[in-house]
Amino acid sequence: MSPQSTPSLEKSALSVPHLISIRDLTPADLDLIFHFSDQFREVLSRPIKRVPSLRDMTIANLFFENSTRTRISFELAEKRLSADVVNFSASSSSVKKGETLLDTVNNILAMKVDIVVMRHPSPGAPVFLAKHTDAQVVNAGDGTHEHPTQAILDAYSIRERLGRVAGLKVVIIGDIQHSRVALSNIFCLQKLGAEVMVCGPPTLIPRHMQTLNVHVSHNLREALAWCDVANVLRIQLERMDEGGGGMALRSFPSLREYAMVYGVNRRILDEVGKDILILHPGPMNRGVEITSDVADSGQSIILDQVQNGVITRMAVLYLLAARQRGPELVN
Ligand code: CP
């Protein structure tokens, strides 16, 4: 990135040393991440899609839970910034032999890692890590708590398509109870000036939603008629089955009934008759929370979200590294 296109560090530092929760960010932080994402979009349109910004840094991607989009997206973002990258997957590591999170991480940090990107099934694991290590920490999803970079890429994708986030009405539909995407999206959208509704069956909407200044609806048609943007969430069958004994049956009668009442399909969108922008963080259960004629339509920006994941994560890593290394990194 050329010095001409890079704001000075005094005006462009993130207010936080780690990215653990959207709650910690200011609206100015989000604007700054968007600003740099725009610049990295230009970088990725060049024949050589790489900048040397993080060439002397090492980033470890620690994934204690499955991931496709987030893991690949972070790795690509890191490589586009010229960082050295180490990948760790719990399923093929000594975690299987009983090693603790702290021991695992300390062993990796002993190899001089600067930034840790971590996905973990336990809410709060990234906070624990940040307290016990010197490395900067990026939360790539902690249990049912938060997934901050997903919310950033979602809001960025809305802004890209509609030109703004402020003043929009956004409904988050489906399995709010088990979703880390929902909470991060609520904080992010509200900080950017959007109005937020959650919609789903009462068994999938936690009571604390009432305290977050969001609208709550159990009627999909009503919610779609209200919104400009619908973010459709995955039914998280694996989390519903954590106690064992029969997946979604404890939250709603059957997948077929869920799809009939809360599935976003072409018929209900045509009946509502508005040009609603459709998002889904993935992975999708096609035919359950969303049908293919919606997911693959011109109304959907699902693949734009994936594409924007790389540039927004480049922006996050770049700005965090700038806090650690100072203005010479960014200029
Ligand atoms: N959106 C998302 O977090 O997808 P992955 O689980 O594939 O990373």
Structure description:
Helices cover 41% and strands 14% of the residues. It is built from 14 helices and 9 strands. The protein has a 5-stranded parallel sheet with strand order 7-6-5-8-9, sandwiched between helices. It has a 4-stranded parallel sheet with strand order 2-1-3-4, with helices on both faces. Helix 2 (27-44) crosses helix 13, helix 3 crosses helix 13 and helix 6 (148-162) packs across helix 13. It is globular and about 55 Å long. Bound molecules: phosphoric acid mono(formamide)ester (CP). Residues 67-70, 141, 147, 150, 281-283 line the site of phosphoric acid mono(formamide)ester. Phosphoric acid mono(formamide)ester (CP) binds next to helix 3.
List the keywords.
331 residues; single chain; disordered N terminus; 9 strands; 41% helix; five-stranded parallel sheet; Rossmann fold; 2 domains; 14% strand; alpha/beta; four-stranded parallel sheet; binds phosphoric acid mono(formamide)ester
